[in-house]
Amino acid sequence: MFKVSIILACYNVDAFIEDAFESIVRQSAFAQFEVIPVNDGSPDRTWEIIQEYQKRYPDNFFPISFDQGSGGPGRPRNAGLERATGEYVIFMDPDDRIYKDGYSTLLKAMEKHQSDVVIATRYGVKEKADGKNPVWVDWMADPPYVNQNSYEVKLDLLSQRPVILKTIYRRDLIDRYGLRFLESVSSSEDEIFDKKYLLLSEKITKINDVVYLYTVARTGSITSKIRIKVYEDLVPIFKGLDDSLSVYFNDAIVSYRVAALLRTFYLPKLLLLDPGLTDRALELCRDACEAFGFDRLLQTANATDKRIIELLRDRSYSQLMLFFMNHRTGAANRRNRVQAKKLKEMERRPVKLALKASSLVGLSRKAVKEKGGLGKLWTTRIRKNLAGAPNGYWIFMDRREKASDNGEALYRYVRDNRIHDKIAFIIRRDSPDYARLVADGFNVVAYNSLEHWRLHYNSEYFFASHVDDVIIKPWASFGATDGKPRYKLVFLQHGIIRSDLSGWLGAKTYQLFCASAKREYDGLINNVRYNVGPDQVKLTGLARHDLLEAKDGDYVLVSPTWRSFLSDATEAEFRDSEFFRNWHRLIHDSRVSEAMTGAGVRLKLVLHSSISQFAHCFDEDEHVEVVRYSDVTSFAELLSSARTLVTDYSTISFDVLYLRRPVIYYTFPELQKHSTNAGADLSLYGELGTRVEEHEAAVAALVAAAGDGFRSAEDKVRAADDFFAYGDRQNRKRIIDAVLEGSAK
């Protein structure tokens, strides 16, 4: 019996198929391969060439031929499966080629690990091109894995395009579940087969070896010329995806993938369709969505997909295409940047641990700026300084220049309860909090010092309230981009997520991802772009919430969040911004001042750290106090004593809601869009607090709050009770318990 059956569905590929066959016969394991090319009624010389190779290699080639074409690869692939005798199966397209000894590599990995499936990597190349200058590089796992069956691995595979052409499958598993390709469709049959197989597999292996050369948009292929049948097939395709994905995932995940396929494959292909058929194709897309269920599709956590589905549902096709093209342009630019970086990394692979001279020059310049913190490093190699044995430390950190967040709160809990004896807190030496923490007995290590890097890189756990690269891998900005640190990342969060941050947070790898509300938890689990599952995401609550205590302070806190476009603005630009004009007008409205005076309180304005340099632009008087971000000693105290909070999108609103204090969300319309409110759940703001958009309404809300003695309405208290997972001030214990439970596995 052969080890591997290689099945090729062949239609009109006489210009390419010899190259495909030659790449097969050159494999070192060719003697263990049976090749099953299935001619699907090709009118060109495809069948003639197949017969020539059968004569040349009669012990390995076992062709099949249909008189009539099938309209898609499903039927010929199924015929190949019926004929296959190999222990394993590989599917290959006849216009592609195996890269080097790629299929032998797949077989060796399968035999070595005894997996259900082994997935490799491929290059996208132009017609007839070799792999020296690929157009793109396929997905690689970081790190590769062997015989995995976790939710996280399967969630990651769900977000990838079909892996069928770079993968080796176990035939008995295919037969056990009766898996076959849809024969009635001309596209996506590979994704339906592939996803169902992967979700039923218990031992999944991913290697990063390149084994395949995928021909990009060859002349005459389905990717270069689209027929209306592609859209006529959508109803069975959506049903097939539903059947495949539902064996493992819930409705929200299934809907995400179906909607994503529409966005990433079928809508882009409209541009390759005869323009006269576009309206018909869009109507077919709508019919398929209606058959699947608009309500189900709208469960997707992707805001772009939701808007596409809504526009399809409403038959707003012109608006849909404008929206889609705007999205596509932005996505293409991001993809190109990522691909350029990936290709550059591939070029560096042979010397990936070396630092170039230019990097050392840049490093030395940065080291000098650090005023001695890294001064020694310019004469030596970074990797050498990071190298070391595991040190067993638990490292805690908030911002580089500021503590008083979840990192500090959890450090105190671990220290005071003597949970772990090797702990350290990281912060800049020039931060006012550095001396405060030292005086409080913290083991403080200066951020970006050599001690910090060595301790951090080799630590056991890194507990962080922020996960920007300058926090979780500070050495990267100094040129040390290679090597993987030893620590496991515990993301404590800076607040409760209320919008889609998956594009940022989904690029990290977490040991634990803390959530504080069931809605937040569901949003993380049901959005595949976060790349996390139940093993990582745990409902624990925020560490800093344990330190909150409702007090009757003498101020109303006003604290809007940041605007990315204002971070580097000039003072003149800031003063001319919508942000400044709206907030300055509100805090100095005479009606607000009168109401606050009557209630015996003042307004206390605290700006986000990224725009706190403009605090001096806001006038102070007896009614308004402006507090610099750097001067806030304790945010727990600041929030605990606030009678009410006025904000726009800041996550600190949930801290105040946690105390069951009123929150006013002033979300005035803005001409200049910004990331801080992208995907924000405005209905949630109205449910938990009072949301207003106009100045007069904001004034009225503040006056009313003062008139009510800053007491939350009963319905708002009940809504907060339902929203937060816990209110017992045991969040820090739950976080540590989750960490210790995970380490015991």
Question: Would you give an account of this structure?
Answer:
This protein has 745 residues and is of the alpha/beta class. Helices cover 41% and strands 15% of the residues. It has 31 helices and 23 strands. Strands 1, 2, 3, 4, 5, 6, 7, 8, 9 and 10 form a 10-stranded mixed sheet that branches. Strands 13-12-11-14-15-16-17 form a 7-stranded parallel sheet, sandwiched between helices. The chain has a 6-stranded parallel sheet with strand order 20-19-18-21-22-23. Helix 20 links the parallel strand 14 (461-464) and strand 15. Helix 9 packs antiparallel against helix 10 and helix 10 (251-266) crosses helix 13. The model is unreliable at 348-381 (pLDDT under 50). This is Glycosyltransferase 2-like domain-containing protein. InterPro entries: Glycerophosphate_synth, Glyco_trans_2-like, Nucleotide-diphossugar_trans, TagF_C. Residues 5-137 form the Glycosyltransferase 2-like domain.
N-to-C span: 40 Å
Shape: elongated
Beta content comes to 5-15%
Mean pLDDT: 89
How many DSSP H or I helices? 31
Name the structural class: alpha/beta
Helicity, as a percent range: 40-55%
Number of strands: 23
Show unreliable segments: 348-381
**Biggest sheet record:** 10 strands, mixed
State Rg.
Answer: 30 Å
Please render the helix and strand layout as text.
Layout: E1 4-10, H1 17-25, E2 33-40, H2 46-56, E3 64-66, H3 74-83, E4 88-92, E5 97-98, H4 102-113, E6 117-125, E7 136-137, E8 145-148, H5 151-158, E9 167-170, H6 171-176, H7 189-200, E10 204-215, H8 229-232, H9 234-245, H10 251-266, H11 278-292, H12 294-297, H13 303-313, H14 317-348, H15 357-369, H16 382-386, E11 394-397, H17 406-416, E12 423-427, H18 432-439, E13 444-446, H19 450-457, E14 461-464, H20 469-472, E15 488-491, H21 502-505, E16 512-515, H22 518-525, E17 537-539, E18 555-558, H23 571-575, H24 578-587, H25 590-599, E19 602-606, E20 624-627, H26 635-640, E21 642-647, H27 653-658, E22 663-666, H28 682-688, E23 690-692, H29 695-707, H30 714-723, H31 731-744
Parallel strand pairs: 1-2, 1-4, 2-3, 6-10, 11-12, 11-14, 12-13, 14-15, 15-16, 16-17, 18-19, 18-21, 19-20, 21-22, 22-23
Antiparallel strand pairs: 4-9, 5-10, 6-7, 6-9, 8-10
Domain Glycosyltransferase 2-like: 5-137
Protein name: Glycosyltransferase 2-like domain-containing protein
InterPro entries: Glycerophosphate_synth, Glyco_trans_2-like, Nucleotide-diphossugar_trans, TagF_C
